[in-house]
Design brief:
Elements (H helix, E strand, L loop, with lengths): L11 H17 L15 H6 L1 H4 L3 E14 L2 E8 L2 E8 H4 L1 H8 L6 E10 L5 E12 L9 E3 L2 E3 L5 H6 L1 H7 L1 H23 L3 E2 L5 E2 L11 E4 L4 E5 L4 H9 L4 E9 L11 E10 L3 H18 L4 E4 L2 E4 L5 E4 H9 L8 H11 L9 H12 L8 E7 L16 E9 L2 E8 L4 H16 L10 H9 L4 E7 H9 L19
Parallel strand pairs: 3-5, 8-12, 16-17
Antiparallel strand pairs: 1-2, 1-4, 2-3, 4-5, 6-7, 9-11, 10-11, 12-13, 13-20, 14-15, 17-18, 18-19, 19-20
The structure holds one RNA strand.
Length: 501
RNA sequence: GGGUGUGUAGCUCAGGCGGUAGAGCAGCGGCCUUUUAAGCCGUUGGUCGAAGGUUCGAAUCCUUCCACACUCACCA
């Protein structure tokens, strides 16, 4: 900058205006603020890790400037690349007067490329002694400045709303956030490896569905102009995966984004990622073994065979417990409610001093009771098995002849549900009856009851072999493995109310 | 939807017995060739979430609204 008058403002808008002016000035000086490419030979972390062999070698690095310390004719900056940070030393003597003048026009947040030689400063920090500097991207909108000393962050960027709304800033400034999403990607990769290795076929089924099904939830509705009809964003992919088994595939899985038009909280995001997998000729016992193996594989690869989650020590290394739902009721209620009907359950609610909605059906009463009285006790990985038929319209009746129960399990860890699975119902007559019962519940006001999918029923009539099937909430599994207590912290762009200025 | 809390400069936060705002960092102008929360001197910057109300006077008190966080409910 020349003999310009002193700028007197520093609101955000002023800073942006000033930086736009710098872009203009740089262009006039023959510097392209937005060039096309830059040759990188090393990542920051590689240089730090391999200092001995790289000392005094020429390297070329690129990254975003995260701090600048100008001391007259020499300066230190830290740049951050995808693998970490490294310090750069730049002096007017080494890079020349013009380049140094350009450097002094730059700001924290700019991307630069550096060619130079690896050295250590007198305090021992691995540093690149720059021999040339290239501006790679001029920042216009300033980033939060976070400083750190002895591992303690100062002025950390912690405002959760801003972090979620402006995730790119969160990622720039909070390196541990990077780690979570790298771990997320790894877990998804290990998941695919696990099923691919077992000859499961990865498939993709419709996200826009003319009839939604496969779970109890309210959907998002959208209007399809060309077909002049409503479509639904899927709440689950179950009914489509089963059609594929009818079609002759024997093992399929899909990692599916599902959408449920419900509340947002620590454990729920309206769009979330689940895996469902189905294998023919096996039952829920087999699937329990497979799920256990899967969870243990992910835990092992994550280096978390034991971990602390929500204050609980969780141990994945021992065999998971398997407990029947009504045994658990007996254990935690002290009452055998196997034969209870609606009035008995209502009486029990009263006795327990719990609020009860007189409109609740059997399934709702059982679900509530389980959530209230049992769930929070299930800390170590536990398969809850043998659910009432009334709350499991897609599961097969117990083979022992007990018509009230189905072959179903859910996996609980740290009081939360992680998996839901059945010996899949493949009797087309029974399936039709159960979905029709669900439809009746809908008419009675249960907005989450399932709807009848006629094409699905026709597929069942065509014949689906005996099958075991499982759904697992992957976001929650990722939360567990990264020890995060909010689903928002494992979803890059969690759902937020749109900003209204 | 209920409860609790938060919302003040770009970021992190003070202030809050009512007298229309402060700090650090960032920014801007200087000095500075091994610094690292660099330092030193100087300096700009705010419709105190929004709208009403009480008052001579509101960031501060009251009401409503908005957003977010935590939590309960809902959601297997």
């Amino acid at each position: 900058m020349s003999d310009e008058h002193q700028e007197k403002h520093s609101t955000l808008q002023d800073i942006i205006a000033l930086r736009k002016e710098k872009v203009h000035q740089l262009r006039e000086m023959g510097v392209n603020p937005y060039p096309y490419s830059f040759e990188v030979t090393h990542k920051s972390q590689e240089i730090i890790d391999n200092y001995e062999s790289l000392e005094n070698q020429e390297v070329s690095v690129a990254g975003r400037m995260m701090s600048i310390r100008i001391m007259g004719k020499a300066s230190f900056v830290h740049i951050m690349d995808g693998k970490g940070k490294i310090q750069i030393y730049l002096s007017q003597q080494d890079i020349g007067e013009k380049a140094y003048a350009i450097f002094k026009m730059l700001d924290i947040g700019d991307f630069i490329g550096i060619k130079g030689r690896v050295m250590k400063t007198r305090t021992g920090e691995v540093t690149i002694k720059g021999e040339s500097m290239t501006l790679l991207c001029k920042n216009i909108r300033p980033i939060p400045i976070v400083k750190e000393k002895d591992g303690v962050l100062h002025d950390a960027f912690r405002d959760k709303e801003l972090r979620y709304r402006k995730r790119y800033l969160d990622l720039i400034v909070n390196p541990d956030v990077h780690e979570i999403f790298i771990k997320r990607a790894a877990i998804l990769r290990w998941t695919r490896e696990f099923f691919d290795a077992r000859e499961y076929l990865e498939v993709e089924t419709p996200i826009l569905q003319p009839v939604y099904g496969g779970a109890n939830a309210r959907p998002f509705v959208t209007f399809y102009n060309a077909l002049d009809t409503n479509f639904y964003l899927r709440i689950a992919d179950e009914l489509y995966l089963k059609r594929l088994l009818v079609g002759g595939f024997e093992k399929v899985y899909e990692i599916s984004k599902n959408f449920r038009n419900e509340g947002i909280d620590r454990l729920h995001n309206p769009e979330f990622t689940a895996i469902e997998f189905y294998e023919v000729y096996v039952d829920y016992e087999y699937m329990m073994d497979l799920v256990e193996e899967y969870i243990q594989t992910i835990a092992e690869k994550s280096g978390k065979m034991t971990l602390t989650y929500e204050g609980h020590m969780i141990d994945f290394s021992v065999p998971f417990q398997r407990k029947a739902m009504f045994d658990l009721f007996e254990e935690f209620l002290g009452t055998d409610i196997r034969e209870y009907e609606i009035p008995d359950l209502q009486a029990l609610y009263k006795k327990l001093g719990r609020k009860v909605d007189s409109a609740w059906n059997y399934g709702q009463l059982i679900n509530e009771l389980f959530k209230e009285c049992v769930e929070s006790h299930l800390i170590q990985p536990t398969f809850v098995i043998d659910y009432p038929k009334a709350i499991s319209p897609l599961a097969k009746i117990k083979r022992d002849g007990n018509e009230r129960l189905v072959e179903r399990f859910e996996l609980y860890i740290a009081g939360n549900e992680y998996a839901n699975a059945f010996t899949e119902l493949n009797d087309p007559l029974d399936q039709r009856e159960r979905l029709e019962n669900q439809a009746k519940l809908r008419e009675l006001g249960d907005l989450e009851a399932q709807v009848v999918d006629e094409d699905f029923l026709q597929a069942m009539e065509t014949g689906m072999p005996p099958t075991g099937g499982v759904g697992i909430g992957l976001d929650r599994l990722i939360m567990l493995m990264t020890e995060q207590s909010s689903i928002k912290d494992v979803i890059l762009f969690p759902a937020m109310r749109p900003e209204t200025p």
